[in-house]
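Hello forum,

I keep getting stuck at the same step: I have a sequence, I want structure tokens, and every attempt I make locally crashes halfway through. Rather than fight my setup again tonight, could one of you with a working pipeline run this one for me? It's a single chain of 358 residues.
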Amino acid sequence: MVFYSGSISFPSQATTRLRRTANGGLTWQTVDSSYFHYFDMAFVDAQIGYVSASNADFIPAILKTADGGKTWKPVAQGFSPARYELTGISFIDALRGWAVSYDAMIFQTRDGGMTWALQDSIRPVSYFVFPLRNIKFTTADSGWAVGGLAGTSLIVKTIDGGRHWNVVTQSGCSFRDLKFLNSQTGWIAGTASPLSIFFTNDGGNRWTPQSLEPLQLQRVGIRSISMVNENYGWAVSDLGRVYKLNTTVAVNTPQQNSTPARFRLEQNRPNPFGRLPFNNSTRIDYAITATTPIRLAVYDMLGREVALLFDGVKSPGVYSADWNGRDHREALLPNGIYFYRLHAGANLVLTRKLVFIR
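Reply #2:
Ran it on my machine without issues. Output:
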């Protein structure tokens, strides 16, 4: 799913039609249905774009548009030695691009998609291939690919144009799509889980789980995601529904302006947390009914304060704080049970328990 300059061309993975909207998603027009499946799309400007597809014999192909997605023409097909479809593509300009196959082979083009060369084959375990679902490059050197199978996620990163990849496997949801605004800020999304969208602002070294609202979105997987900036974007669920996202990632920011009915300290989520690289932080929500001094801190089993999340005055509202399992000196704490405590004013104290797993 790709938004460009207020319009969208939309191949939700493995769709049988290529659709386009010019009004922000209110109405959609089918612009191509000549291929059996359409998998992924990449635009380099408002006019030039590419899409990966396969025919009824499952032979992969790359299509190109030069008129903003109104018409599409095939420019390449075959992609030997890949045995499966091209699940993801990425272009950084009109000439240079990458494609990834379901059986984890990465191809590169330097001539606008006319010819492709095998660049690498990702095998995190020597005897098993994890499927790759998508790939994104932000510069000629920096790129990521994601995938996974049967509850095991896979994310790989390159900083040398794809010649070498850093591979990480992780238990949890398998990933299907990713979006990077630049070399530091990005999202990955995947199968059904309350933790199926993750955010990074440090180039993928650490990932923070995102809250999914409405609740219906928590019960289905995310098939495709597109972000215009850090706060605004769209997601497509496994049910084919399109959701607008308004996502902010900040510590101790108000979530709503209405005054809560009572002070609250919610259970952190995820809990347990800390299994790197994806669940490496947890979110704590709390509600304040009046302007008052607030102190939110984390304590170990001996009652020692190990991390201070906020200490100051808050006005009425609902707030959130993130904790990454590190102490005052930014040292990673040991596995175990910890307590987080909210002091509001002189008399109110609320405490909850969390579990941190390294």
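Confidence is low (pLDDT under 50) at residues 5-9, 247-257. If your local run keeps crashing, start a new thread with the error log.
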